[in-house]
Amino acid sequence: MEVGDFDGDGADDALWWSAAPDRAWLWRMTGEVPERVPAPTPPHEATTCVGDFDGDGCDDVLWHAPQATPQLWRARCTGEPGFEAAEVAEAPPGGYPIGCGG
After folding, report:
1. Which UniProt keywords apply (predicted)?
2. What is the distance between the alpha carbons of residues 62 and 41, in angstroms, rounded to a whole number?
3. Which of 8, 13, 47, 95 is deepest in the core (most CB within 10 A)?
């Protein structure tokens, strides 16, 4: 699970996923019962990094899995939940792992 403001409403949301296909959900936290919205399925055995990678004020998700091309999902940032089509990011040369955090 990852936490971030994925819809631009100023409140943190939760992104849940499992290794099974079509098992990713964005829980939009509105202060009431969470709204569950389907999300794109991540790569198998993926590691995630959450941050505002495109500078629009909403958190995006970077997925990296062994033997797979990293994917960057851009949050729509419109006040509504969802992600733009997955953008492929170039893998670092030499197979370096991707790390995030502070």
Report:
1. Signal
2. 13
3. 13
Answering whether pTM is above 0.85, one says no
Q: Which of 24-28, 41-45, 74-78, 98-102 has the lowest mean pLDDT?
A: 98-102
Alpha-carbon span 45 to 37, nearest angstrom: 22
Contacts of 24 (CB under 8 A, 6+ apart): 15, 16, 17, 18, 38, 39, 40, 41, 42
Looking at the structure of the chain, the number of domains it has is 1
The bridge status of strand 71-73 relative to strand 60-64 is: antiparallel
